[in-house]
Amino acid sequence: MPQEYIATGRRKEAVARIRMSAGTGKIVVNGRPFEEYFKTTALQNTVLQPLETAKVVNQFDLAVNATGGGINGQAGAVRLAVARALTETNAELRGPLKAEGFLTRDPRMKERKKPGQPGARKRFQFSKR
To answer: What is the pTM of this model?
Structure first.
C-alpha cells in the first residue's frame, strides 16, 4: 500500500480533512472533481498554492472531505491541510511553506451579535424625534 498522509485544516467554520498519497495530481473534493467543486480560478489557486510553493504540483493525489462554512472558508481549510500534509512528506518544506504563511491557522472568526443591536456592529437607526 502506498504511503498516505492525513491532515486537517480549519478556517472560519470550515473543516477540511485530506488524505494525500503519491500519484498524478488528481484532486477529489467530497466525491467531486476539484475543478467542479471549486469553480473559480481564485479558489482553485488558493488550494494549489502550497503544492506550487513546494514544487510538487502533479506528484500527489488528494482525497478531500470538506464540511461546514462556505466555499471560501473551505478553500482556506484545504490549503492549510495540504500544507500540513506536505510537511509530513518532507520536513525541509516547512521553512518555505511557513514563510508564505500556509502553516498559520487564520484566527479570524465571525463576531457575535450583541444584544440591543441588529448585528455585531450595526446599530438601530437613530431618530431625533
So the answer is: 0.90
DSSP annotation of 129: -
Query: Which of 68, 99, 62, 100 has its CA nearest to residue 81?
Result: 62
Secondary structure (3-state) at 27 = strand
* Total Cβ atoms within 10 A of residue 122: 10
CA atoms within 13 A on the CB side of 101: 4
* Of 36, 39, 33, nearest in space to 61 by CA: 33
- Kindly provide the b/e burial profile for residues 39-60, where b requires at least 16 CB atoms within 10 angstroms of the residue's own CB: eeeebbebbbbbbebbebeeeb
Q: What is the pLDDT of residues 6-61, one digit of tens each?
A: 999 999 999 999 999 998 989 999 999 999 999 999 999 999 999 999 999 889 99
114 phi and psi angles, rounded to 5 deg? -95, 150
User: For residue 35, what is the enclosing H or E element?
Assistant: helix 34-37
**Phi, psi at residue 21, to the nearest 5°?**
-135, 160
